């Protein structure tokens, strides 16, 4: 694969209900390379929270748009696999700004994006539904103009922000109508909610996988199309590093992972 358009086409084809795309989120060049080399991995996704923390800033567009695109390009350039970039709210105040910024991100090589519908603090409050849909449409317009079939994973923050089910579903379907390919539906913590979302949303569903959530095999069985883990992969990495540091400081045994060849 040599073009961003081809990578985007592949990325979309990997979103199969019942055989979900599993993306272990990365945040820099080395994590991109390590995950890319794992047998069976077919695409990568960044996590804005992890990227922000790696740069010493808070999540929620703590990076400037220039910094966010540069960080995305570091990941994209480290792998031959398609990369979906967590682009937060588009780093813009309006739909026109979203289109301009997404165009730049596509030019950097992004095959897909996440775009969220919360206004300020993560998950609440949300943009009015018409404005949020217009921002999704702007991302699709950027893709159309560049000739890259960007995979848009439109995030619905309603439930995670304490909102109502009907609003979440209405948003999901509005974003699909505006050009989203997949709905990143936060707050689906039970089999019942996943099943309900799949029956009421007129398109593919993407979810977060969590230790206390629905098991991966069950998510596949129910018909989810994509599972990611957000900043939890950073948490997993830091937990291992912290435990190893404690063991070494206490003059304990060398953790076998110190011999990991990268």
Automatic annotation (TrEMBL):
The keyword Lyase applies. This is 2-methylisocitrate lyase-like PEP mutase family enzyme. Transmembrane segments: none annotated. One of its GO terms (molecular function) is lyase activity. Keywords: Lyase. PANTHER family: CARBOXYPHOSPHONOENOLPYRUVATE PHOSPHONOMUTASE-LIKE PROTEIN (AFU_ORTHOLOGUE AFUA_5G07230), PHOSPHOENOLPYRUVATE CARBOXYLASE. It holds the Pfam family PEP_mutase.
